[in-house]
Design brief:
The chain is of the alpha/beta class. It is built from nine helices and eight strands. An eight-stranded parallel beta sheet has the order 7-6-5-4-3-2-1-8. Strand 2, helix 3 and strand 3 form a beta-alpha-beta unit. Helix 1 crosses helix 2. The two termini are 27 Å apart. The structure holds pyridoxal-5'-phosphate. The site of pyridoxal-5'-phosphate has 13 residues, from strand 8 and helix 9.
């Protein structure tokens, strides 16, 4: 099979393999350093702009979670993902009118930041007879024009979302502001972790704080040290993105 691949693809496979091994080692080291086990950390690959053949190669290496951030791209690649061996999640900003296109196709929607969006996910899940897991996205850096709820709005959204049918809140997600230093970055991750712990202590039906999704290619190790148990790595695994 491999001999039919173009030299270009073989090079890509080779570097993805090298990166995959390096990232899993780094994840394991950060997990242990933060008093957890490597298996406690979920490695999700952000697959935007990446061809399914390359994504599936990563899956063949052991990758178990992939995430797309655009509905159209997800749908165009959908039939080619090796979904027998990995779970597909949605990690980008989701418009309410596109929800119905992905319900039943994704195992989790990581980026829910309004009751309107949660209600539509609930409605479409009921219609399709499925349960959909979601994470609530928090705008931890209080940035204007950025997705996510503000900290002070989080609990109310959780309470209201928890009452919706066929939807289950599984945790929190964030994309912190672009920081000049690792220390500044760590502060945002730490703030998220405190929020995660606070919310975990409260009991709400249909809400279980299983995942704290934060950390990308440049900062996933800091994120794990600060408490993340799910990281979303794109370019660090697949190389710089080429937008076609
Ligand atoms: C692209 C993307 C990532 C990964 O970014 P990299 O810097 O390439 O690792 C993580 N999360 C979301 C929501 C993304 O869209």
């Amino acid at each position: 099979m491999t001999e039919k691949l173009s030299p270009e693809i073989r090079d890509i496979f080779y570097s993805v393999e090298k990166n995959y091994n390096e990232i899993t080692e780094n994840i394991a080291a950060a997990a242990i350093k933060s008093g957890r086990c490597p298996e406690d950390i979920t490695f999700l690959a952000a697959t935007k702009t990446v061809e399914p053949i390359v994504i599936n190669h990563a899956v063949s290496l052991g990758l178990r979670y992939i995430g797309e951030n655009k509905v159209q791209e997800l749908l165009s690649k959908y039939d080619e993902y090796d979904l027998a061996n990995c779970q597909l999640q949605f990690i980008g900003h989701l418009q309410t009118n596109k929800v119905r296109q992905i319900i039943g196709k994704v195992s989790m929607i990581q980026s829910v930041d309004s009751l309107k969006l949660a209600s539509e996910i609930s409605k479409q899940s009921v219609k399709n007879g499925v349960d959909t897991d979601i994470l609530i996205e928090v705008n931890i850096g209080r940035e204007e024009n950025k997705s996510g709820v503000l900290e002070e709005e989080l609990f109310e959204l959780l309470e209201k979302t928890s009452k919706l049918e066929n939807i289950k809140v599984r945790g929190l997600m964030t994309i912190p502001p672009i920081c000049g230093s690792k220390t500044e970055n760590y502060k945002y991750f730490d703030k998220m972790n405190k929020l995660f712990i606070d919310i975990s202590a409260k009991t709400l039906d249909n809400v279980s704080m299983d995942f704290l999704s934060m950390g990308m290619s440049d900062d996933y190790q800091e994120a794990i040290l600060a408490g993340a148990n799910m990281v979303r790595v794109g370019s660090g695994l697949f190389g710089a993105r080429i937008y076609r």
